[in-house]
Amino acid sequence: MLKYSKVFGLIAFVFLFAMCNQKSKNESKETILKGSLDITVDETVKPIIDDQVAVFEGTYYDAKITVKPKSEVELINDLLNQKAKVVVTARNLSAEELKRFEKSKISPRVTPFAIDAIALISNKSNNDTLIALKSVLDFMQGKKDTGIKGLVFDNPNSSTVRYMKDLAKVKDVPANGVFSFKTNDEVIKFVSENEGMIGVVGVNWLSQPSPNMVDFIKKINILGVKGFKDNEYHYPTQTELAEEKYPLARDLFIINCQGYTGLGMGFSSFIAGEIGQRIILKSSLMPVKTPGRKLQVRSEIIKDKE
């Protein structure tokens, strides 16, 4: 019996060694600038991540990143259940979520990389291009006489819905007057074809539309929003975001739970670095770090040749 026990123990040891060795080989194929990686991205900010991936892959030819857009609820669930290792979110992890990672002995690397804006849009035929945030929140709370016919969201589980519910301090949206689809493009299309509706979308979908959405965007207005800090109406521009005036601003994060030095770390560093922040700057979003500018100082003025 002892003999068989020793043989079984030897087999188990060899099996475990082979599995660990295989895992080590798989991870060794991936570096911060080489290998393949799936990134689960909050659907409301997908355009800017597509831009980042395109430049990253164009710079590092041995890297292949696949962007998987999902709603915020799906994204966080995948991250907590370790179905996703690297994600881009419109919020940081909560204390409760961090505790779950601690129990699994995982230390998420959280990197803020941009300031985003949630835009409110209306049909071009609407003469009023201004709206008070209080009216929107009152509508979310089910109050009447807000002057709002209906709100249109991309997805019941999206980060924009969660953001607006948090502001309105409600657990659920009203049963009447609130509509949801699956994507930001669908919201834009619906608002462009229906008067009186107010769409709630990530501003990146308006500043970097796909070719098939350009005509729809021409039929909508981006509304000026009056918050609670002053009586002015503000728009989701970089200037307003930088001056912290636009009332519907939010931070964006890339969260890496790979647990080793892999492509997730390389891509996070890229987004937060000089090139990545320049890409953010060229979009409608605000980078967390202002990229430097190189100035050439000359001792004399060189006259143009006649």
UniProtKB/TrEMBL annotation:
Species annotation: Flavobacterium cutihirudinis
PBP domain sequence ranges: 34-273
Name the UniProt record assigns to this protein: Phosphate ABC transporter substrate-binding protein (PhoT family)
PANTHER family: PERIPLASMIC PHOSPHATE BINDING COMPONENT OF PHOSPHATE ABC TRANSPORTER, PHOSPHATE-BINDING PROTEIN PSTS
Alphabetic keyword roster: Signal
Signal peptide: 1-20
Lineage of producing organism: Bacteria, Pseudomonadati, Bacteroidota, Flavobacteriia, Flavobacteriales
